[in-house]
Structure formats: structure tokens, C-alpha cells
């Protein structure tokens, strides 16, 4: 099955793209998470979303959920690891699964912190962003998971079934941290220190902290949003952001982007607005394709 529009991300940008695509009767699929967006649920009070003064992120999330449920929009909780432009369509990879779509809207958000030293240098040389995809490469080897969210704990447990030794380095703070870390398999070693550098020669061989190092064969950095270049090979970027024009078109034909991933200001309402533009641009692209195909058939 080939979708008209695949939307990667379930924050305000992705959901706004989804409702607008659906209103225009396109066959859509949305990838994201059950909570919609960690950045949304974390906001204590939001004063700049028109129509909802002093609303908490959690309340706004519930309103978004109700909205998409009323429109029969479901979210696939599969994480997309790569998006490949195949010419006439896009292939979206999630582990061993592949989804096809004629257009793609990237609405992945952005990781606010800088990458760890060595993270980008060793990407694909021992550093990965998806433990469940690359786990077989680390059978009986030593791995570290640098986790920026709660979902990373699940990936650590999964890897621990395969690896000979698993380290978990939590990069997030929350009241429930100690409780939540109890979900980790007891044989996983938790390191409560910030890593300074991922290092190696050709391949990763260790992670350095302020005063010590651990020897590892692989490092998984589990974030809400991976770098756009790692997600979509060949896409043009400007620093951490995807380059787009005023219609939210990226440098790749048929691929659009919106929200935090295309630049500042980082805001809910801007993201939702751009999500709408991206969806309408995708619709207009699909409509033009249809006309061209009809002409060719004559
Ligand atoms: C604590 C806090 C408070 C804030 N307060 C405000 C405020 O008061 N007002 C305001 O306007 N803004 C605020 N912001 C900023 C706001 O959260 C962001 O601008 C907004 O969430 C961006 O929306 P987005 O849709 O672009 O991305 P996000 O909300 O980041 O959503 C992206 C979603 O895509 C998912 N995703 C990413 N990659 C993939 C993939 N490969 N496959 C599947 N899913 C994927 C992520 O898991 C996430 O769910 C706040 C941010 C924080 C952290």
C-alpha cells in the first residue's frame, strides 16, 4: 500500500499536517508517540496558544488527542529511522518494516542540546540512533545507551538481551527517575554522569566521562528527534534545521518539513501553522502529479 502523505512526528506540526491532509481527503499515515510530544506534555503553563490561555501542556495534549480521534486519525508508534527518496515515492524504514508514500512531511521537532563530542563523527561507525534496528550487530559485545527520554530504557532492556554488557547513561531528570529506572533490567549498569566524549580510532571503542572511561563496542544515542541528515540522507540543512522555502518545501522533491525542525522560534502555534502549510503544499504536489499522470495516459 502506498500512502499519499507520510507524516513523521506527532507534535503540533505533525498533527496539524495530519488534520489538513485528512480534510483534503488524502490517504495519510502519522508516525510518532502515544504522548504525542514530550515537549508538549512537559510545558507547565502555555500562554501563547491562541484561544487557550494558561493551559498546561498536558491539557493541550488531551485536546489535540480528542481532535485527531474525532477525525479518525491514528498514530503509529513506530519510530522512523530513515527516509529514502526513491524517485516516484519515499521509503520510510522502521527496523525491518518499510512504508511507502508519495510525499513526506517531516515534523520531527529538534533536539535542543548540542550533540556529544564524537557523536556525529562516529555515526554509523559504532554510534547509532536506533537500538532495536542495529542490536544484532552487538551480539555478545559491550554497548552504552545514552538515553534522553523514558523510551530509551526499553531500548536498553532490549539490547541487554543480546549484548554481553550494557551501560545506561540517563541524560534526563524527572521526579520519577529513580522509580522509572527500576524498570531497567537489574544487570544493566547505570552511570549517573554526563559523558564528555565518544571516542575511538576508526570505530568507537570508549565513552569518556570527567574522570573515567568505559570500554564499549557501540553507543546508542536515544533522543526524541535524530539529526535530519541522519534521518533523510541528502537533505539540505542549515545547522540543526532543515532548509525549507516559504511553502515548507525541502531540497528534495515531494518532501516537506514544518515545526521546530525547520528553525526558530520554537513554538506550538508556529509549528501548527507550518504543519498546515506543509500539508497544503503536499496536497498541491499530489494534485499536480495526478494531472501529469493523466496527460501521459492520453
Ligand atoms: C518545557 C518546555 C516548555 C515549552 N513551553 C512552550 C510555550 O509555553 N509556548 C510555546 O509556544 N512553545 C513552548 N515550548 C516549545 C514547544 O514545545 C515546541 O516548539 C513544539 O513542541 C514543537 O512542535 P513540533 O511539532 O515541531 O515538534 P515536537 O513537539 O518536538 O514533536 C515532534 C514529535 O515527533 C516525534 N518524532 C521525532 N522523530 C521521529 C521519528 N523519526 N519517528 C517517529 N516519531 C518521531 C517525537 O517523538 C515527537 O513526539 C516549550 C518547550 C519545552 C521543552
Tell me the layout of helices and strands:
Layout lengths: L1 E7 L3 H12 L4 E4 L6 H5 L14 H14 L4 E2 L5 E4 L4 E5 L2 E10 L20 E2 L2 H4 L7 E6 L3 H10 L4 E6 L6 H5 L7 E2 L6 E4 L3 E5 L4 E3 L2 E5 L5 H4 L5 E2 L2 E2 L12 E3 L10 H30 L1
Helix pairs in contact: 1-8
The structure holds flavin-adenine dinucleotide.
Task: Walk me through what this model shows.
By secondary structure, the chain is of the alpha/beta class. The protein has 2 domains: 183 residues, FAD/NAD(P)-binding domain (3-Layer(bba) Sandwich), CATH 3.50.50.60; 96 residues, 3-Layer(bba) Sandwich (FAD/NAD(P)-binding domain). The chain is 28% helix and 24% strand. It contains 8 helices and 17 strands. The chain is globular and about 65 Å long. The two termini are 25 Å apart. Bound molecules: flavin-adenine dinucleotide. The site of flavin-adenine dinucleotide has 32 residues, from α1, α2 and α8.
Uncertain runs with pLDDT below 50, 5 residues or more? none
How much is the radius of gyration in Å? 20 Å
How would the global form be characterised?
globular
CATH class of the largest domain: Alpha Beta
Number of strands: 17
Second-tier CATH architecture of the largest domain: 3-Layer(bba) Sandwich
Major β-sheet, in short? 7 strands, mixed
Please provide the ordered H/E string of secondary-structure elements.
EHEHHEEEEEHEHEHEEEEEHEEEH
Structural class: alpha/beta
Count of domains: 2
Task: Tell me which oligomeric state these chains represent.
Answer: single chain
Examine the coordinates and then state which fold CATH places here, giving the name of the CATH topology of the largest domain.
Answer: FAD/NAD(P)-binding domain
Report the portion of residues in β strands: 15-25%
Number of DSSP helices? 8
Helix content: 25-40%
CATH homologous superfamily of the largest domain?
Answer: FAD/NAD(P)-binding domain
- Tell me, rounded to a whole number, the average pLDDT: 93
Amino acid at each position: 500500500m502506498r500512502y499519499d502523505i507520510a507524516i513523521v512526528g506527532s507534535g503540533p506540526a505533525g498533527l496539524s499536517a495530519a488534520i489538513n491532509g485528512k480534510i483534503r481527503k488524502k490517504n495519510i499515515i502519522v508516525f510518532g508517540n502515544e504522548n504525542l510530544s514530550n515537549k508538549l506534555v512537559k510545558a507547565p503553563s502555555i500562554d501563547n496558544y491562541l484561544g487557550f490561555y494558561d493551559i498546561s501542556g498536558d491539557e493541550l495534549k488531551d485536546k489535540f488527542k480528542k481532535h485527531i480521534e474525532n477525525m479518525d486519525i491514528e498514530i503509529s508508534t513506530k519510530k522512523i529511522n530513515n527516509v529514502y527518496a526513491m524517485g516516484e515515492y519515499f521509503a520510510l524504514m522502521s527496523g525491518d518494516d518499510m512504508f511507502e508514500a508519495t510525499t513526506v512531511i517531516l515534523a520531527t521537532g529538534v533536539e535542543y542540546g548540542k550533540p556529544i563530542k564524537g557523536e556525529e563523527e562516529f555515526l554509523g561507525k559504532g554510534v547509532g540512533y536506533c537500538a532495536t534496528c542495529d542490536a544484532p550487530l552487538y551480539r555478545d559485545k559491550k554497548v552504552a545507551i545514552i538515553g534522553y527520554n523514558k523510551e530509551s530504557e526499553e531500548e536498553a532492556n532490549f539490547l541487554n538481551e543480546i549484548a554481553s554488557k550494557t551501560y545506561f547513561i540517563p541524560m534526563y531528570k524527572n521526579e520519577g527517575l529513580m522509580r522509572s529506572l527500576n524498570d531497567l533490567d537489574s544487570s544493566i549498569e547505570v552511570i549517573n554522569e554526563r559523558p564528555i566524549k565518544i571516542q575511538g580510532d576508526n570505530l568507537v571503542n570508549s565513552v569518556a566521562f570527567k574522570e573515567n572511561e568505559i570500554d564499549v563496542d557501540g553507543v546508542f544515542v536515544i533522543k526524541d528527534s535524530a539529526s535530519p541528515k541522519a534521518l533523510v540522507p541528502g537533505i539540505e540543512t542549515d545547522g540543526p534545521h532543515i532548509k525549507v522555502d516559504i511553502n515548507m518545501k525541502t531540497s528534495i522533491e515531494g518532501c516537506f518539513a514544518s515545526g521546530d525542525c525547520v528553525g526558530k522560534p520554537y513554538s506550538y502555534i508556529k509549528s501548527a501553522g507550518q504543519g498546515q502549510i506543509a500539508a497544503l503544499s503536499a496536497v498541491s504536489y499530489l494534485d499536480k502529479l495526478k494531472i501529469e499522470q493523466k496527460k501521459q495516459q492520453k
